[in-house]
Amino acid sequence: MGPSLTFRTGVRDVLPTVFGYIGVGLAFGIVAHTSHLSLLVVAGMSFIVYAGSAQFIITSMLLLHDPLSAIFISTFLVNSRMILMSTSLAQYFRHESLFKNLLIGTLVTDETFALAMNKQNKTNGKLSFAWQSAANLVAYLVWGVATIVGALLGGMIADPTRFGFDFALTAMFIGLVYLQLISDRRLGLSLQLMVMIFVAIIYYFMIGLMSQNFALLVATVAGCLFGMEMKKCR
Amino acid sequence: MSMSLTELWVILGCGVITVASRVLPFAFVKQVSMPAWLIDFLTFVPITIMTALCCQSLFVANPGHLATLNVANCLAAIPATIAGVLTKSLLMVVVVGIMAMAVLRYFSIGG
Fold this sequence. Notes:
With 234 residues, chain A is mostly helical.
């Protein structure tokens, strides 16, 4: 990943992350197929809701005939981490027009957020509308197409996890967190390592007490507060 | 190719919810200047959220009890991390991770 911030560079930078999308997207399509969702519903979920892990939860809740209100609340909770990510990312685009900000916000995901945070370490804290849009668009299209292909293949693939593709997403986050760790010069290595360990410990204890998504939010917020205190002490 | 009324409402409702949680912060940050403490807080969001997302796949939740490790994911994470340290390439981390997991599955290691 270099310092260039053009649309083309954006496409190139996002390519390593699409493996994660393809694996999970295929898996979602297959799950949706076995849950008797039509192709139209799969497409609607991927292109309109566009919520990754929340789509799995919505599918299972639809299958259980949960009330609409419960489905809406779950979707909000699972996706509420996006509020933190968007607020964080939006600081890099304040100089752009409101319209461009809204366009970027519409398609931000965990992965393109993490990618952008890695990128700005290489560009002295700058990001561009063209670069971010390229990353967002490629991610959006690959996700949508992968879920539809998964739904079409449906019953044909006996066990998609056999070839290890389900690990692509985890591997991608490991790669992104490692690159973040070694390249964020504002915070430095030792402070970030302390924060990471703190987050892992909090998350470990919280998942016994609450849902995974709540635990993720609690660990994230606690980690940020811990980091702020540690930074003051230095 | 069909869609029930419930499915239509779910797609539209959840669509509005996900777009709002992504877009409103952008509109907010654009209009309002943020206090220093909030900016300080947000500098830690990338590392904390990425760490928590990794933890989500490395730990298995056991409601009411302490979490356990997802052994297969933890084992595959080792070569993936080493690939990251050696190459500093996201693509290599992903490729090595997938291959490691395929090998673990082939020998039925880690469940």
